[in-house]
Amino acid sequence: MVAVSVECVGRAGRDERGPGGAAGGVVRGTDVEERMAKAADPAKVRERVRAFALGLPGTVEEFPWGESVIKVNKRVFIFLGVGDGNHPFGVTLKLKAPEVHAHALTSPGAQPAGYGLGRSGWVRVPLTEPGAPPAELLCDWAEESYRVIAPKKLIAELDGG
């Protein structure tokens, strides 16, 4: 298991996945919608997701276009945008599993990503909306996005193999 960030433990650290191993449903025994209703500081949530993503095997942070992206094997799996506070905080992730993708789109203000990325499963989730997803759920989605992009060797390493 890869331990990375406070309160953002990956799939290997808990067993709250839904059908087919997808993130969603119950998180640590608490209803997701209830947890989403609790407001959190968007900058802190963004940083927790960033730290979690950078703790996954083979990841690096780069800054194309002046925005933070996390890559694995030279491919982006999460866009974090600009972290200077001049733009609304949000994350963009690739969520291919239909139930996870649909769940992410129920987040307040969430929408398919721009520039045609939405057609490939990318979802933009704002962090500044009331009822935005908690960091823990966003970390689950970051791991799902990582698993879509990462090579099998790194996924096996994440799973302890």
Textual characterization of the structure:
This protein is of the alpha+beta class and 161 residues long. It has one domain: Aspartate Aminotransferase, domain 1 (Alpha-Beta Complex), CATH 3.90.1150. It is built from 5 helices and 8 strands. The strands form 2 sheets. It has a 6-stranded antiparallel sheet, covered by helices on one side. The longest helix is centred in the last third of the chain and has 15 residues, at 135-149. The N and C termini lie close together (10 Å). 37% of the residues are buried. The model is unreliable at 1-7 and 11-29 (pLDDT under 50).
Give a brief description.
The protein has 161 residues and is of the alpha+beta class.
Q: What is the secondary structure topology, with strand pairs?
A:
Blueprint: E1 26-27, E2 30-31, H1 32-37, H2 42-54, E3 59-62, E4 68-72, E5 75-81, E6 90-94, H3 98-105, E7 111-112, E8 122-126, H4 135-149, H5 152-158
Antiparallel strand pairs: 1-2, 3-4, 4-5, 5-6, 6-8, 7-8
Low-confidence stretches: 1-7, 11-29
Characterize the largest beta sheet: strand count, sense, and whether it forms a barrel.
6 strands, antiparallel
Structure classification:
alpha+beta
Work out the helicity level: 25-40%
Quote the CATH topology: Aspartate Aminotransferase, domain 1
Strand/helix succession: EEHHEEEEHEEHH
Give the total of beta strands: 8
Mean pLDDT over the full residue set: 82
In one word, what is the shape?
globular
Quaternary organisation: single chain
**Helical segment tally?**
5
CATH class, named Alpha Beta
The CATH architecture name reads Alpha-Beta Complex
Radius of gyration: 14 Å
- The end-to-end distance, rounded to whole angstroms, is 10 Å
Pfam family, one: YjbR
